[in-house]
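in:
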């Protein structure tokens, strides 16, 4: 039997996936369905699955990539599942990793599993290297931006900076578009800090990967890749310079 584990935060999607797998592959045992990073990690360490169906977007800011980063070793195959073909797909394809686009087509599911069965035990090292290389590219990780219209998903690397607007935040992208989101600047800072963002002013959080120059002054200011010039507060100057030196 092949042990498979599903990481999926939508119960209906998970149930359909379970049904399609059972209908087509009697030799696959589904050990469980999990929807958070912590429960998924515990299950992987307990069951040692050979195949993991991994949802890209989980609850809140959690992603399937967070699970991969926290594992000491990756000794299973991964088939990504995602509802958003705008992001990550090209990187996944380039790394020769499999993915299924929601709603999951049964024929595509069968093809992906058959490919796993043929390749299992042969390409584990290359898959491991591809997974690690992919998860380290944080700038491609999608972030959900909630607004009154819904949730917009964009890669982290396309965000140049965020500006606090009372109880909301305006997110400015590298192509000079602006998106108002229903999050405070503090909440955005906490969500983006691990991706290389830094508070430089009470009103600004910037993507350090887009800082092209720091200009000296009382607090100074920074030039960003998309042309913006943003003031740096004296209170945040030392932290900014320290973070820039580590890039």
């Amino acid at each position: 039997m092949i042990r498979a584990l599903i990481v999926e935060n939508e119960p209906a999607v998970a149930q359909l996936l379970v049904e399609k797998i059972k209908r087509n592959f009697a030799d696959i045992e589904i050990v469980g369905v999990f929807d958070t990073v912590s429960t998924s990690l515990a299950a992987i360490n307990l069951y040692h699955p050979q195949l993991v169906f991994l949802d890209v977007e989980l609850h809140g800011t959690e992603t399937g990539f967070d699970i991969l980063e926290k594992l000491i070793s990756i000794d299973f195959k991964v088939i990504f599942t995602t509802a958003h073909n705008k992001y990550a797909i090209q990187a996944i394809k380039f790394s020769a990793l499999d993915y299924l686009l929601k709603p999951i087509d049964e024929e595509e599911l069968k093809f992906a599993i058959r490919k796993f069965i043929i390749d299992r035990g042969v390409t584990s090292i290359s898959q491991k290297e591809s997974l690690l290389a992919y998860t380290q590219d944080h700038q491609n990780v999608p972030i959900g931006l909630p607004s009154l219209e819904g949730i917009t998903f964009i890669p982290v690397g396309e965000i140049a900076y965020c500006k606090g607007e009372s109880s909301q935040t305006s997110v400015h992208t590298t192509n000079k578009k602006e998106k108002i989101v229903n999050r405070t600047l503090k909440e955005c800072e906490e969500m983006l800090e691990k991706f290389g963002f830094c508070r430089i002013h009470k009103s600004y959080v910037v993507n350090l990967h887009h800082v092209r120059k720091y200009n000296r002054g009382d607090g100074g200011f920074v030039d960003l890749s998309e042309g913006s010039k943003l003031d740096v507060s004296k209170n945040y100057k030392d932290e900014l310079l320290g973070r820039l030196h580590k890039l």
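note: The chain has a mean pLDDT of 84.
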